[in-house]
Amino acid sequence: MTNIALLKLQLLYYGIRADRDLPSPLTNPFGLVHLVLPEGLAVSVHLNENGTDSPFLLRREGTAFFLDVAGKESIPVQWTPPLHSYQQKTSSRVSVSEILTVHGDFIAVHPSHACRFGQSGLSCRYCGSSQDISLHPPFTPRDLVEAIQIVEQEKRCDVVCLSSGHVETADGGIERLEKWVSEIRKHLNVLIALDLVPPETNDWIDRTYAMGVDALYYDSDFFNPNDESGGEPRAIFQKHKARQLEALEYAARIFPTGAVLSHLVIGFEPLAETRASIDLLIDRGVVPVLAYFPPYDGSDLRSRWTATPEAAQEIYAHLYERLVRTRINPHWVQQYDVVLTCLEGRFLSNESPRYHLKLKNFYETRFGRALRFGMARLRRHLRVREVPA
Predict the structure, then answer these.
(1) Cα–Cα distances in Å, from 10 out to 35, 56, 226, 304, 343?
(2) What pLDDT is recorded for position 135?
(3) Which residues contact 389 (CB under 8 A, 6 or more apart)?
(4) Is the pLDDT at 51 greater than 80, yes or no?
(5) What pLDDT is recorded for position 132?
(6) Quick check: pTM over 0.85?
(7) If exposure means fewest CB atoms within 10 Å of the residue's CB, which of 82, 217, 223, 275 is most exposed?
């Protein structure tokens, strides 16, 4: 019997081949095929990923779609057509696909600076930054609001995530994004997440929450897929690492439980070290998001990447088991199609999901969504106070 979570990792690793007579266009503007596996697991898949023929063939029989694997039983899947919204333009004539990428109910806004995943040669499916950033046209906060409104006419949107890209400023990139957050808050009823570098001082974290941000993805350089120390002397690297952990732990006390997250890249260190990093973050109230992005052919990282799907599954099981035993809310991880989420790790474990799965399903109802948004606004109202200059 096929393990659905392992199948999702295998699809992220291998991609798929396309049979004849499939719909056109088959992929979204970023070359990804959107599928829903049994048990409702969504995945965005490249065609013929990793430079070799994939063992998975996508085919259609009438209106039904199947994944064929040589020597195994065909797996029924759902194919999700690319959004028509991608082809539309804002009033300033910028295409929606040049502004954002949609992952279910989660919108990732394209950064103006390449993220560390795209820079390093990983096949990031998340924010469009793995494409050449110089090809992205500039767009304004107003363009972004219009693009989101266009998407919302076609489907529901719960979370919008903006990224600073890779920056080295003391604020971690928050100052540049403040006007964007303000414009979204003014016109849209959505939850806002930011993907930033941990700032040098905690007052930037307080300011981030006060301006109307609901969740933080703090990417820590010491989990970088490249050189562990980035070429820094060991003492400086350790000091830098300690500060980033301090920022993550402080942010977890300011933001709602589970709303501070950090990516861990799988495949560039022994899995035992990744397991230890998971524990390091969870012990500080931070939710790890495991990035399973195989390197592109020609990338310097290709020869160093070792995480096969079969080897990586134990790490996902460990993350799931640690989180379900805590009071940390795992429901902020919503980019379901590009990562195997902590709750999806339940298919690799015998541990019960307890109430977490029921809460996830509740949040996806209209009433649950309204309650979640209302609680986020109320919490900020109660916690944020103006301080005289």
Answers:
(1) 13, 9, 24, 19, 18
(2) 64
(3) none
(4) no
(5) 54
(6) yes
(7) 275
> Of all residues in the chain, what percent carry a pLDDT higher than 70?
85
Cβ distance 332 to 215 under 8 Å? yes
pLDDT at residue 104 is higher than 60:
yes
Placement of tokens 């990792």 in the chain: 9
Q: What is the DSSP string of 142-176?
A: HHHHHHHHHHHHHS---EEEEE--S--STTTTHHH
Q: What share of the chain is helix, strand, coil (3-state, %, to 5)?
A: 40, 20, 40
Q: pLDDT band for 65, please (50, 70, 90 cuts).
A: very high
Mean pLDDT for the stretch of residues 257-277 = 89
Residue 241: its pLDDT value, please?
A: 75
Cβ 16 vs Cβ 45: under 8 Å: yes
| Domain range summary for the chain, segments of one domain joined by + | 4-80, 84-372
Reduced to 3 states (helix: H, G, I; strand: E, B; else coil), residue 122 is strand
How many whole angstroms separate alpha carbon 96 and alpha carbon 84? 10
Of 80, 81, 78, 63, nearest in space to 21 by CA? 63
| CATH of 84-372 given 2.40.50, 1.20.120, 3.40.50, 3.20.20 | 3.20.20
Alpha-carbon gap, residue 288 to 220, rounded angstroms: 11
